[in-house]
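Hi! If you just cloned this repository, the fastest way to understand the data is to look at a raw example. We've pasted two of them here, unedited. The first protein comes first, obviously.
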Amino acid sequence: MVEHMYDHERDRTTSRATPTMRLQTRTSTGLDMVQWRLGRSFVVHSADRRLLEAPLVDVGPVRVGGQWQNRPNQHGMYFWARTGQHVWYESALEASCLIALDFDGEVERIASQPFRLLFRLGARSVRHDPDFFAVYRNGDQVVYDVKPSARMTQEVRDQFDETARVCRLVGWATRSAA
């Protein structure tokens, strides 16, 4: 199931969509979904094994956090030599994770926050933007969440557990770095 999400509903008389697109913030059906940026629009797809073939490592970030003076974390770009591209990060811990993955030498390609996961957590609809999506030389696809151990609350652990469950539906491995 693939659909594009629009800021305004489709015009029922012409079936045309407005050019402005938006990210979903919840899954209305209760199904597990994955959403990513495709040009100026967003694609929504059910969390299933067909996503193993989707070019998610080539898409832009679904969100980029703001940077302002005296912000406690630092944003930046890390140069990934294997692809000749810069990978965005939003904290020193994420930068350290990128450096470790780069020096490990097994990750062929990596993308920063390339998609949003939409799922139910109890009675709540939850969205989660994983920090990195990596494709290894052997073809493995891994979703990374990076969070300082001091900020690992029970709510965050529950969200990471649900993220791992949704990723297993697709066939992705998950790893958390703290």
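Ok, and the second one:
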Amino acid sequence: MTQQLPPGGPASGTSATISPAAAATPSRSNESRSNESRSNQSQQAQSRQAQSQQAQSRQNQSGRTRPARGQQTAAAPRMPRTSASAGRRPDTGVPGRTVRISSPASLLAVIPAILEFQPANSLVVIGTERPRDQVRVTFRYDLPDPRHPARAAALAEHMVDVLRSQRVSTAAAVGYGPDEAVAPVAAALRERAAAADITIFELLRAEGGRYWSYVCTEPSCCPPDGTPFDVTGHPVTRAFLAAGGKVLASRDELAATLTAVGGERAEAMRRATRDAEEHVAQCAARLRDAGVRVSVRRLTAAAGLVLVRDAISRYRAGESIGAECAAWLTVALRELRVRDDAWARMDPGHADAHLRLWTDLTRLARPGYVAGPAALLAFVAWQSGNGALGNIALDRALADSPRYSMALLLRDVLDSGAPPSMARLPMTPEEVAASYDARRGGADDEDGEQAPVH
């Protein structure tokens, strides 16, 4: 189902969106971006509004802004400052159709269908809304080390913060793994949810084809040895597969879909990328010899705007591109004007085509050219309600360029559990172009986010 929220987002009466302008310049802060150093303090509404106004003022002056803390989400929960979050980021998901939780079996069937992979060593929380307990949002965490109880408490606090920020008052959860790993998080979640007036109506542990309930203690329906389950024939699973969905065996299998190409394809991309860089440099030199003052970067951006529009059109038509075109695109996307133009064209009505385009480019891009397409893939994954894919794409973007501000901004958004309904496009391609044209120097002084060439 498509998540319905108030126009201002989950906890604010003001519009909360992510704009290309907000990520055009990387943050200069020396603050660590690791799990351990993320603040769990939510930004207050007045602070966010003031930051938004300041950011808009800066945009009017310069055509783009630095990302303002808290600008992207309303009362956005942050990952805990403790080492509780030392595993992967929380993976969020929103079902593409109406889904209801009516039994433990339906809960266990819904989760892999929404995540699109079978979770393991995980705690999955599903926020529901009345009437009839329709699924509103799903998010998954790695289970923390049970030898450190404070980690379970911090993780549960973040779960409750996410539910509160989205005004969810009822939820269910499943822990996948042994009792010694699941029980501390389950207990902490129940305690903190009760304090926040959030009802946890079901809390299961699943392991080895059986489930146990932490809520039900009646042996006649919840035996001590667990209840066998098999979701393969469940109506939810059948409906999901009939609609063209697929469930991968693990999150690692999902991550493998974004692995960089190797072998001959990698070598072809390396040559094509080098040729594209050399070609644009030669063109710029010839133009300068002819008395036309133009920089390599401005020329790259001009060609890139055309290439992006063409690639998007081709993928929407069901086509694909070869190594030469892909190489040119990865070179062009290092220019922020080109990336922001592509970002502004991410109409969610064509999400499947866009996922295919940016997945292809993320896999094909050579080191130093990955951050742009991977960050765009993360945005489209968020639009589509696939937080796990978004996080994996951000991992690739930040491995390629650790200070890439669009990726850092989206990481904060996904960490907060922000719903896909907030992935709006506040700027049109024409507005993006106008904001860059208003700046003196245009593409020539956009140095911030270019990764080093390898």
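That's it. A detail worth noticing about the second one: The CA atoms of residues 401 and 451 lie 6 Å apart.
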